Amino acid sequence: MDKRVLLIGLQKSFMVNAIVVGLQKAEYEVVPAAPFQSAIEAIENRPQIYLLYLGDLTMEHAPLFEYLNSAIDADRFMLYLIGNNDELMGVQSVISKSKVTQTFLRPLDIKLLVDHLNMVVDYSAVDENLRKKILIIDDDGAMLRMMKTWLSVKYHVYMASSGKIALSFLAQTPVDLVLLDYEMPVMSGPDVLKEIRNTQSLKDTPVIFLTAKDDKESVMRVVSLKPIKYLLKSMPKDTLIGAIDDYFNAVDARNYK
């Protein structure tokens, strides 16, 4: 991925100009676009990173938000939103949260944005074969899409909507980590993990529960199956992703000894 971003916003805005200057200082090419579908579609060879600056926009720009919500499925760009809490909440009533890669509060910390984009560009340069592979198992489609959006910045992500599909996939494709929901119809998370542990070729697969269940009884039920961690879906994004990063960092540290 090259260092190019599509910056969508009112081009006469002081903050939009400040973002342009900050990104250019960090050696990014900024492609400006007015906040309209026609303006975006008129740009050829659009970048893979879209920044949508919400300051000065209103819900009158809802057609733009609806367009982005639809276009991201086909064009596969990474969407970043910049705004205050009310603006972000309003836009995410139109643009699905599962499709937003990251949000940044305004007034914007340009350095924080640049540091994140640098990480995205750096990880995109990693050979696909060297990326850690994660399988997410969850019957909630919105949760699957959101986790894929968050994790695909660093990892190669697969999705399965049921235990049966997941086990069939794992029989053919080894992964470095499984993120497993607890409550699923037909085959629950504990049942899936039990099957993994009882299958010779899969028994050592690392599994982290990612669930809304936080009661002691549920946790104790799966302790003997030796999941790596037990994470809650209610965790803040950075905490949740950080726990997954920490696991892989610890594995790499052990391997390098």
Describe what this molecule looks like in 3D.
With about 260 residues, the protein is an alpha/beta fold. The chain folds into 2 domains: about 5-125, Response regulator (Rossmann fold); about 130-255, Response regulator (Rossmann fold, 3-Layer(aba) Sandwich), CATH 3.40.50.2300. Helix content is about 45%, strand content about 20%. The protein has helices spanning about 15-25, 35-40, 60-75, 85-90, 110-125, 140-150, 165-170, 190-195, 215-220, 235-255, and strands at about 5-10, 30-35, 50-55, 80-85, 100-105, 135, 155-160, 175-180, 205-210, 230. Helix 8 links the parallel strand 8 and strand 9 (about 205-210). Helix 7 packs parallel to helix 8 (about 190-195). The longest helix is centred in the last third of the chain and has 20 residues, at about 235-255. It is elongated, with a radius of gyration of 20 Å. The model has no long low-confidence stretch (mean pLDDT about 90).
